[in-house]
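Record now logged underneath.
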Amino acid sequence: MRGGGTVDAMEDLVLLERRSDGVAIVTLNNPKVNALSQAVLARLREIALDLTANPPGAVVITGGERIFAAGADISEFAGANEADRIGLGFHSALDAVAAIPRFVIAAVSGYALGGGCELSLACDYRIAGEKAVFGQPEVLLGIIPGGGGTQRLPRLVGSSRAKEIVITGRQVKSEEALRIGLVDEVVPNEQLHQRALSLASEVARGALHAHALMKRAIDEGLSSTLAEGLLLERRLFTEVFHTDDSQVGVQSFLEHGPGKANFTGK
């Protein structure tokens, strides 16, 4: 850990690396179990806001090899008076992650429980190692998920399956997580980061403004009616034609065929 006091210590809790290929890597770094304390969440929110203000090409969020993130720091739980502050900390951080206008990939190795699972749900795409385990075990403490689990989980796996997972508090291994749509890929543990970085690097070479608009259309469309979503898509479809990449892509298609455009991200 770097010297210098509180600010440096907070920065060490979540690490940000911006690579030359346009990929930003966000790494949870709060040993031993990557608990999502309020300090960790504050730093995660700070990083997410930075990635929104100055977007990279794509983002990979990862944690420890054995534990992606074990959830909230239970030692901070001090009753109802603190619950609202803790819930706000989770929602502020994870909503900021979800709002990053780029493709955000969760690379999950080991346990992603409680808030750790909710962090993965706030990402756009989840790649799990074979030994990854997911769950919302809050009910075992007599409480409910407070970081978006009751809302994002059913949007992925359906309401019945989500209710069963959160009400029993059971753990979901990677194979089942893939089958029910909780994760999008499962790879051998030793290939996890290579696969996540490879996908992110590929995405980062694409039409980045179009990525942002597509993500916005899908996310906002899911929280609106079909008619409202279609109106939004129509507006964003017109907006994207004001980008340089749309001109590059159309011209490249006409001259060379599909998939050969060299986008600038403008």
